[in-house]
Amino acid sequence: MSMPGTTVLGDILARRIAAEGPLRLDHYMAECLLHPDHGYYATRDPFGSSGDFITAPEISQMFGEMLGVALTQVWLDQGRPTPFLLVEPGPGRGTLMADVLRAIRAVPGMAEAAQIHLIEASATLREIQRARLAGHAVQWHDSLETLPDDGPLFLLANEFLDALPIRQFERRGDAWAERQVGLDATGALVPGLAPPLPLAALAHRLADTQDGDIVEICPGAPAFVGRVAAQIAARGGVAIFIDYGNWRSLGDTFQALRAHRPENPFATPGMADLTAHVAFEPLAEAARAAGAACTAMTPQGVVLERLGITGRAQALAQNLAGPALDAHIAAHRRLTHPEEMGHLFQSLAVYPPLAPLPPGFDAARA
Ligand code: SAH
Q1: pLDDT, block means (10 residues), the chain with 366 residues
Q2: Which residues pair with 177 in a beta bridge?
Q3: I need a surface site. Which of 204, 227, 266, 273 has the fewest CB within 10 A?
Q4: Which part of the chain is CATH 3.40.50.12710?
Q5: Pocket test for ligand 1, best of 122, 133, 138 (most atoms within 8 A of CB)
Q6: Residue 249, exposed/middle/buried by CB under 10 A (0-12, 13-18, 19+)?
């Protein structure tokens, strides 16, 4: 069963498929990312220029600083709740949290009131976060369920939801064929389609799709946002979600990245980062269904500009020259420019129904 070019996890999955039949795409994605011995996140530090991809907090400290500014405004608006939970799911290297903690020191009492909780699946990344946040009291969790159940929740999630497993469906008439992972004649993993079935969850997509179109569903994302929103509606706070995505899912966005290069997502299970674009409409629906208010989906570049990133960039530039100054200017552009991350990355904030609109965000259209 072992083939040249595949991986240990690839062999494990191929044996399972040979015995049990094709694997749903979300199950495949979960194994590739989170398998305890051979999963992508379980085994490596994927960040930084030597890693597989670079995220906004790793591009510049200004990203975390601006989100810190947003949190301070919400904290003041909500009457300086003390203590409060400062929560980050999928904190990567801990860079965003470190930058936020520095930024919120500008408001007396806020940093002292923050109880830091990180939700992280990877033991490797937990160790990197521990080192990055040395000097702070931090608690780690496997999921939302073990967070303390009192106190307002201030949550930041950057490129977390895009790592949650997706299902894909291809339209066939008025029915949907689910994409699944099977084996070809040589025993290699290949995508295929299950027989089409009518699907209530995609009934609303018959109006805006055509035969052959692909639609994705990420069951974990609205479930996560809904649980967070229920706590914010009951206890106060805010949650900010930032990710590569669109309002509605359309087309195949399942992708693998390895050493900064796109790769066939079925070629090297466990060795490449797998993501999919985030659909924001289901997140907004889940937040409202849980009793919280929710902003419009707002481009990352717009939010960062409104929070003052250009002024901050100019202040930081005062102390820079030569290549460091060039890199700083490039980082500012990369985070905000519509042709770089500024428009591809979108954001959404969830807040208590009677609280002011979180700063930087567009109000939801009525
Ligand atoms: N927010 C960081 C990292 C993004 S990568 C940044 O912007 O740089 C995704 C992060 O989510 C990693 O820390 C990964 O280990 C974590 N992760 C992925 N799936 C997870 C899950 N199901 N539960 C908890 N953490 C998860």
Answers
A1: 69 96 98 93 70 87 98 98 98 97 97 98 92 97 94 97 98 97 95 97 96 98 98 98 96 92 94 96 98 98 98 98 97 96 96 97 91
A2: 170
A3: 204
A4: 42-165+218-351
A5: 122
A6: buried
Q: What is the DSSP annotation of 5-65? A: T--HHHHHHHHHHHHH-PEEHHHHHHHHHH-TTT-HHHH---BSTTSSB--HHHH-HHHHH
Integer Cα distance of 300 and 245 in angstroms? 11
310's enclosing H/E stretch is: helix 309-317
C-alpha of residue 91 to centroid of ligand 1, in Å: 6
Q: What is the pTM of this model?
A: 0.96
The C-alpha atoms of residue 180 and residue 192 are separated, in whole angstroms, by 5
Q: Which of 60, 93, 120 to mutate to test the pocket of ligand 1 (most atoms within 8 A of CB)?
A: 120
- Considering the segment(s) 42-165+218-351 as one domain, its CATH architecture is 3-Layer(aba) Sandwich (3.40)
- 4 φ/ψ angles, rounded to the nearest 5 degrees: -60, 140
Decide whether any atom of ligand 1 lies within 6 Å of the 67 Cβ. Answer: no
